[in-house]
Amino acid sequence: MLMLGFAGFLGLLKIVLMALAAFGLFDAAFRREDAFRAADKQNKVFWLIILAIALVVSYLFSILSFLPIIGVIASIVYIVDVRPALKQVSGGGGSGWGRRRGGSSSDGPYGPYNGGR
């Protein structure tokens, strides 16, 4: 019974690690090549290859071997170090969720709200 629970936990962990590598891979695929050079990181092809290998390795091998751990480290390095640098160079690149983009607190979707005056 305990081993079945442990195997379920490892399966769930494997899915999470694959999702991490897939997120990094898709994020790198949709970034511009010149943003990688401007952020002084490795080029886009390098990160696409590394993250694709991390995804395949995390799918093929057990989470207890060392290859998926290397893939997880590569995915974390991309998400924590490279992705923020790319976002900063390319001007944010996000939809602005949770961020104020300037303007007044009384601004509506079509401009400032003046209270019906």
Structural commentary:
This protein is mainly alpha-helical and 117 residues long. 64% of the residues lie in helices and 3% in strands. It has four helices and two strands, in the order ααααββ. The chain has helices at 2-29, 33-38, 44-60, 66-89; strands at 107-108, 111-112. The protein has a two-stranded antiparallel ribbon with strand order 1-2. A hairpin with a 2-residue loop joins β1 (107-108) and β2 (111-112). The longest helix has 28 residues, at 2-29.
Quick structural summary:
The protein is mainly alpha-helical. It has four helices and two strands; from the N terminus they run ααααββ.
Termini separation comes to 70 Å
Measured as a percent range, the helix fraction is: 55-70%
Helices and strands: which structural class? mainly alpha
Q: What's the gyration radius in Å?
A: 20 Å
Mean pLDDT: 81
Strand order in the largest sheet: 1-2
What is the chain-wise order of helices and strands? HHHHEE
- Largest sheet report: 2 strands, antiparallel
Please indicate the percent range of residues in DSSP E strands (runs of 2 or more).
under 5%
Low-confidence stretches: none
What's the total helix number? 4
Number of strands: 2
Tertiary shape? flat
Topology:
Layout: H1 2-29, H2 33-38, H3 44-60, H4 66-89, E1 107-108, E2 111-112
Antiparallel strand pairs: 1-2
Helix pairs in contact: 1-3, 1-4, 3-4
